[in-house]
Amino acid sequence: MADSALLNLVLWLPFAGMLALALLPAARAELIRGLSLALMAVQFALVAWLVARFDPAQGLQFATDLPWIPDWGVHYRIGLDGYNVLLVALTAFLGPLVVLGAQRAVTKDLKLFHAMIQGIQFAMLGTFLAQDLFVFYVFWEAMLIPMFLIIGIWGGERRVYATMKFVLYTAFGSILMLAALIYLVWTLNQTTGVRSFAFADLIGLNLPLDAQLWLLAAFGLSFAIKVPMVPLHTWLPDAHVEAPTTGSVILAGVLLKMGTYGFLKLGFPLFPEATRELAPWLMGLSVAGILYGACLALVQDDIKKVIAYSSISHLGYVMIGLLSFELVGIQGAIVQMVSHGLVAGGLFLMVGMIYERCHSRKIADYGGLAKLMPLYSVAFLLLTLASVGLPTTSGFTGEFMALLGAFAAGWKAQAAGDSLMLVYAVLAVLGVVLGALYMLRLAGALLFGAERAPHAPLNDLDGRERAILVAILAAVFWLGLAPGPALELTEGAAREYRAIVLGHAATEGGQ
Q: What is the Cα–Cα distance from 77 to 67, expressed in whole angstroms?
């Protein structure tokens, strides 16, 4: 099978699975779970094969380009490149783990639940793989439907409020992005006579600074809501707390990366002059998010809220890496996206495991788990240390490289008489300290605090839970101990991004 056909199979397999699940009898619970898991496992195997065949020296690979709406210049364009290859791999990797994690937790409307899991997998992969702005927007919006249902049907007591807040925030940003998208394509047609939504055509469009500023604001608002950046973050804690474990893992593991990926792939390269103009402001907001998210995580009494606010902080490092315009920072940002997906996804899965046993998310309701559940405690402590950024873990690789890029940009700016970027870099380091405080506080209370009578005795991890956590921890330590292959896959894209945003002023060997 041609590699381009294989990539299409990867994309459309969950959509076919969604239709197949709809045809199964609702009473066949084990068949539904088994089919859903099998689809995700096959998809991951196919993605692993494509990633192994991916050539870092080439650009877009395994591409498909078919006319969809020719009169509008819309083509069905998908492909794998250095921008999306690790994120596609992350999405496919988490898919089987999400299905395994829901084996016991979800019993209501099982067929619809697994159909929605397949549906959101399809939409997320389509967003990453799209190479046409119209196709990107369709998949971007399609993600709302399954997530709306996952939170709204299987969520907590305040699920309706959380769902509506999530949808309203996202829809508002999407409307502005649609308006900017139309203007961008219309301008391309007026200036070149070409009617196209292709990323490659639009990124080469030369727009005046004023237009770029407005368009970046429109695209950037939609992406910033997804990240989320302060002060557009308030939907996230509600969505995480009310979502079922599966929803929280999808949100933290993949959906939040849509915002940072949007900036990397589209927002900043489409409007390079505006990006350079607004970089200090965006860097300031990113550092504010790092510190504000960490401070809020430090005072929470709900385990899910601690991890939710930590996401705001950790994704701030992705943004400062992208905004450093340094190769090491850009690659660090990409690695940090993957690392956060693994670590936060794993932590949310572990919250779900303990919630299934004790039906509480309050930190005060737990204690002494190191004695009661030793295997669980070891896994939780390892993910905690990865979240803190312990060397040998993926958290260290991503955050260290992003900070190194921020300091490199700061030193260059200081040499030119501007010390603001260096101040931002120094302040970002405080987020690492605060991260250690809130995560070690959480781990200390859960694992080593006084034992709580209602929780004794507790069964330790079963075989299914061990398999989930071994897979995640293996990926976390692989990316921490041997990040070379991942960096090779993204280096070409990082150099291209840097050259475009800096107006082709970046040198080939620039760091």
A: 9
**Comparing C-alpha atoms, which of 133, 105, 99, 136 is closest to residue 14?**
99
Angle (CA) 258-261-264 rounded to 5° is: 155
**Could you tell me if residue 414 is inside a domain?**
yes
Question: Domain count of the chain?
Answer: 1
Do 470 and 342 touch, CB atoms closer than 8 A? no
For residue 451, is it within any domain? yes
Q: Which of 10-13's residues contact partners 24+ apart within 8 Å by CB, and which partners?
A: 10/43, 10/46, 10/47, 10/50, 10/88, 10/92, 10/125, 11/78, 11/122, 11/125, 11/126, 11/129, 12/122, 13/39, 13/42, 13/43, 13/46
Structural domain range at position 465? 320-511
Sign of CA dihedral 266, 272, 278, 281: positive
For the ranges 34-43, 188-197, 237-246, 350-359, the one whose mean pLDDT is highest? 34-43
428 located within any domain: yes
| Entry pTM | 0.92
- Torsions phi, psi for 302 (to 5 deg): -110, 130
Around Cβ 163, how many Cβ atoms within 10 Å? 24
Angle of helix 159-192 versus helix 144-154 axis, rounded to 10? 180
Residue the block writes with tokens 């905690």? 384
Per-residue pLDDT tens over the stretch 279-301: 999 999 999 999 999 999 999 98
> What is the tens place of the pLDDT at every residue in 56-93?
888 899 999 999 998 888 999 999 999 999 999 999 99
3-state secondary structure 385-420: HHHHCCCCCHHHHHHHHHHHHHHHHHHHHHHCCCCH
**78 - beta bridge partners?**
64, 130
Instruction: Collapse the DSSP code of 209 into the 3-class scheme (helix H, G, I; strand E, B; otherwise coil) and give the result.
Output: helix
**Residue 236 in domain:** no
The average pLDDT across 326-331 equals 94
